[in-house]
Design goal:
single chain; 257 residues; alpha/beta; binds 2-phosphoglycolic acid
């Protein structure tokens, strides 16, 4: 099996001013030093990207946007293009977060366009998928994940895999404190990888990082990360505090604290 370097990504959602974000990045770097064998990502709001990128310079921390539009430029008032994000020096964009899907009308079609557009600017993608509570209760988890993965990846190829991460985030676990059990998270992440294999091929999918997200906390990260198909976390609430995010990054307990 290919070695997959874990990713711990903090999604700050609509939190932190740019000054607060920059201070966080500096404090996090001081706290974690140069961790080996893990990639660390923070995702501020658009307004905080430039300051966070400046603060992260020379550190192992990379910076992600939380969304983008798929066109490069044009009459799209209020939107931000992948070119603009890449121009700031961001390395990643989160696409298809469930809050975008549920509150702002994101569809599998727009997710696919955004994934392609981010890759066209040479940035890396964290594409989010996950079922709602009603879908899980109705036994639709597998079909929802299959649809979201295959349609979301419709415009990329195996050549994009090194720059593509999929985050499985069950909607019922996001911000609720109800983490999926490690077994449920593993089962779903394995489905995500199997569907990615259908879209991109077995070997590329085996090399692709699949993250779990949904109430990841210092006290549940170890058992989640022990699962065969979980290669990291996409973390909301627990990424807002330097100490708790650092504890997630240091989940193996081998780094300085
Ligand atoms: P949470 O958010 O960790 O606060 O549940 C996760 C996410 O929405 O990415």
């Amino acid at each position: 099996m290919p070695e997959r370097v874990p990713v711990m990504a903090g999604n700050w959602k609509m939190h932190k001013t740019s000054a607060e974000g920059a201070a966080f990045v500096r404090a996090l770097h001081e706290r974690i030093g140069e961790p080996r064998g893990i990639e660390v990502v923070v995702a501020p709001a658009f307004t905080g990207l430039a300051e966070a990128i400046g603060a992260a310079a020379g550190s192992p921390i990379t910076v992600s946007a939380q969304d983008c539009y798929w066109e490069t430029q044009g009459a799209f008032t209020g939107e931000v293009s992948p070119l603009m994000i890449s121009d700031l020096g961001a390395q990643w964009v989160i696409v298809g977060h469930s809050e975008r899907r549920q509150l702002f009308g994101e569809t599998d079609e727009t997710v696919a366009r955004k994934v392609r557009a981010v890759r066209d600017q040479g940035m890396r993608v964290i594409m989010c998928v996950g079922e709602t509570e009603a879908e899980r209760v109705d036994g639709e988890t597998e079909s929802v994940l299959a649809r979201q993965v295959s349609q979301g990846l419709a415009q990329v190829t195996a050549a994009d895999v090194g720059s593509l991460v999929i985050a499985y985030e069950p909607v019922w676990a996001i911000g609720t404190g109800r983490t999926a059990t490690p077994e449920i998270a593993q089962e779903a992440c394995a489905i995500v990888r199997a569907r990615a294999a259908e879209a991109l091929g077995e070997a590329p999918a085996a090399a692709m990082r699949v993250l779990y997200g949904g109430s990841v906390k210092p006290d549940n990260v170890v058992e989640l990360m022990a699962q065969a198909d979980i290669d990291g976390g996409l973390v909301g609430g627990a990424s807002l505090d330097v100490d708790s995010f650092a504890r997630l990054i240091e989940y193996r307990g081998t780094l300085a604290s």
